[in-house]
Amino acid sequence: MEVRLEGLTKIFTDTVAVDNMTVVFPSGKLTGLLGPSGCGKSTTLFMLAGLHNPTRGKIFFGDEEVTDLPPEKRGIGLVFQNYALYPHMTVEQNIMFPLENVKVPRKQAKQIAFEMAKLVQIEKLMKRKPSQLSGGQQQRVAIARALAKKPRILLLDEPLSNLDARLRLETREEIKRIQQETGITTVFVTHDQEEAMSISDQIIVMKEGLVQQVDEPQELYNDPINKFVAKFLGNPPINILQGDVKDGRLIIDGNDIYPLVQKLEEPLEIVDVGLRPEAFTLDENGFEIHIENVETIGRDTLIRFKLGEQQVRAFIDSEYRLVPGQDVKVSLRRRGVHIFNPKNGAIIKYE
Ligand code: ATP
User: Fold this and answer.
1) What does the mean pLDDT of the chain come to?
2) Which has the closest alpha carbon to 147: 75, 60, 49?
3) All domains of the chain, ordered by start, with CATH?
4) Mind giving me the DSSP string for 275-316?
5) What is the pLDDT of residues 208-227, one digit of tens each?
6) What angle (nearest 5°) sits at the alpha carbon of residue 278, between those of residues 264 and 201?
7) Span from the CA of 12 to the centroid of ligand 1 (angstroms)
8) Which residue lies with its CA nearest to atom 30 of ligand 1?
9) Whole-angstrom distance, CA of residue 280 vs CA of residue 287
């Protein structure tokens, strides 16, 4: 079921937590709601759940407007960061709880609980109490419980934050699998760009209550709408440097680093330049750099150097071992070179 927000706004006394948000969460897809702490992600989710009333705007589930519908009538499944399982109940009782609440007969509730447990692969743990489970297993129970009532929408608020690094990876793959198997429209709140990139069909990037950009993960990465989005996605982050545009060439600290940036949408001479670390490549015809530091991350080599006073980090694909102190020539691939307006951070397209 498609979910649509129209001009959704939430104002707490003196804070505009969510500002005139108009977006679509496509049916059967997983949408990541991404942004730094305090940007309004949870507030958006709480309004979807019916736990906060919007100050203005509308929420639609399919064709039905649900803006004023109480939470229990919306058909949502909610999963929070802190699992919120009942400690005195077994796994099975926890999953059955929302069903018994709405008077589903016990036998049927047991059957559904088993199906849900199987879906999240904890069917062997039904008789355990939450304290006898790992964090990842507890989160699976929470997801099974949220799915038991066959909700129309699944809402996940930072569901992986309490897990260690390995479990985070495992559980996020698990969430993706469950989401695909059930085909349930899902909203996944996170401040972790890598998590959002790996799990989402679509990402909504927010900043200070305002939607910045909505797109598929790779599109956001390749075509950010502004400096904020470019900086927020990617690890190591994009290098942002000050540059000059002269006669269709991009110059940073006297280095002619990229030829032919023509037909700039805005004819600025001083710009902010975003260089993705992986946009660099060794090239005899390129410009010279002096390697200050070399780090090997798995199969990748990350080098650090300066362009004038500005630090740059770059991944270099090289058969040769690069060492600190070495001088090499590099050039840049078009796809990883972005130009921004230094005043407002907006992207400036070029040919
Ligand atoms: P985090 O990742 O830290 O949870 P978030 O993006 O989910 O952040 P929200 O919790 O939605 O952010 O908060 C958005 C803004 O609204 C923040 O400035 C926050 O302080 C404010 N806010 C949230 N809830 C309330 C409330 N009940 N009363 C007043 N202000 C609130």
Assistant:
1) 91
2) 75
3) 3-232 (3.40.50.300), 239-348 (2.40.50.140)
4) E-GGGEEEEEEEEEEEEEEEEEETTEEEEEEEETTEEEEEEE
5) 999 999 999 999 999 999 99
6) 85
7) 9
8) 12
9) 11
